[in-house]
Amino acid sequence: MNRRLVTVFGGSGFVGRNLVQRLAEDGWTVRVAVRDTEAALFLKVLGGAGQIVPIAADVTDRGTVDAAVREADAVVNLVGILYERGRRTFQRIHVDGARNVAEAAQASGAARLVQMSAIGASANSPAAYARTKAAGERVAMDAFAGASAVRPSVVFGPEDDFFNRFAKLAQLLPALPVFDTSFQPVYAADVAEAICRILNDPEAPGKIYHLGGPRVISFREVMELVMSETGRRRFLFPMPLWIASAEAFFLEMLPVPPLTRDQVKLLGIPNVVPAGSLTFRELGIEPTSVEAVLPTYLRRYRPPILQQER
Questions:
Q1: Quick check: is 223 in a domain?
Q2: What is the per-residue pLDDT across 65-108, written as a single tens digit (0 to 9) for each?
Q3: pTM for this entry
Q4: What is the CA radius of gyration of the chain?
Q5: Angle at Cα 5 formed by Cα 22 and Cα 39, nearest 5°?
Q6: Smallest Cα–Cα separation from 211: which of 233, 193, 223, 230?
């Protein structure tokens, strides 16, 4: 079998580690382009000897990007941020970074490029996160002929920052806020599988895939699932977005803000797959439900006496 080399930017992140393992299983040699190679060494055990190679690169530094994609047959850009800090702005990471990766991939002769975006990406979104995700898609597709993009809903799995965050809050707080919005949570391993199939699908270039789980759930249902799996009872109270925005003003001052005003704007828009979109169905994938996976990793948040139950 011919050697195939893929460069994955952001491969040490939550979705990245799932994708790197799946690509290795599919026979790819995986070059993992990350800012901190030491922090990515754990990935090497997910493949055979020499199959997974971390390499130092920053999507905002074109020189390191060029080096990372050299001789690659395919490139995947997973890099994204949820809040801005200093020079790490949405514009620099989501747009300028996506342009650097796409231009370098095109110049290097790579055959395929997949750009990670998000459901809700739109030039008309009230949230800067969603506007720059849309702009990143656009520059990637303009710079690389036949680039594909994936737009997942909220991604869940053992290392997620969604269900895990609420489970931690349920350990600490007697009451939890709920918002009038909805999600279509998608399993990280399913997103990884989708990207693998896109790389191998001759019909995928130039297409955007919206990736959502098998059902839409409200924010209240999310919290109820968390309480059910953690064995905790908490009072759920509806919180208007304007109050959440006021609180986010102060939370943004924390080193790692749990909520920002831009994220509050996103909460005002349902995070679900739009009708008529290309989805898992076109890739031949049956998405995994949250109910099938949450018990495998939220049990650790149960009170000690409940953790002993089977």
A1: no
A2: 999 999 999 999 999 999 999 999 999 999 999 999 999 999 99
A3: 0.94
A4: 20
A5: 60
A6: 193
